[in-house]
Amino acid sequence: MRERVEEFDKRTIHLVVIAPSKGSFVSQFLDEFGPFPFTIYGDPAREGYKQAGTVTMPKWKLLGKALFGFVTGKVKNFMPDEQGQKKFVQKSMKTQDVYIQGATILFNEKGKAVWKHIDQSPEDHASIDTLLEKIDTKL
Q1: Are strands 103-107 and 39-42 parallel, antiparallel or unpaired?
Q2: Is residue 74 part of a domain?
Q3: Among residues of the chain, what percentage have pLDDT more than 90?
Q4: Can you spell out the DSSP letters for 101-126?
Q5: Domains in the chain: how many in total?
Q6: Does the pLDDT value for residue 30 go beyond 80?
Q7: CA distances from 15 to 1, 8, 11, 39, 119 (A)
Q8: Structural domain harbouring 121
Q9: What is the CB neighbour count within 10 angstroms for residue 18?
């Protein structure tokens, strides 16, 4: 997303990311993986996630997918090479809700949701091309 942020900027689209964590954990994430050209907020109670209708993958299913992807080579860079990032990911896996899946929601200028995609698994994100197409046709 951050590599193509200028395509959203050209359309005067304001990007906001909401993570299922406390602000302090988001800050730690930004220290290791940032900076990002958009704001990331925390939703530790997952209220926004619940309202969006997101799903939580069963633990066995997510771990099975990760193992299968790692063994078959379909999942690259499962664990970052950089030591600080690696420690952060390991901490996340132990302390955060890594099973809840995300969503992408487009709102119009009045705050009304005009399109949404609910991720069913970690690889099921709405593509940037799809988002730009939806923005160009719905907003």
Answers
A1: unpaired
A2: no
A3: 69
A4: --EEEEE-TTS-EEEEEE-SSTT-PP
A5: 1
A6: yes
A7: 10, 8, 11, 7, 18
A8: 5-57+83-138
A9: 19
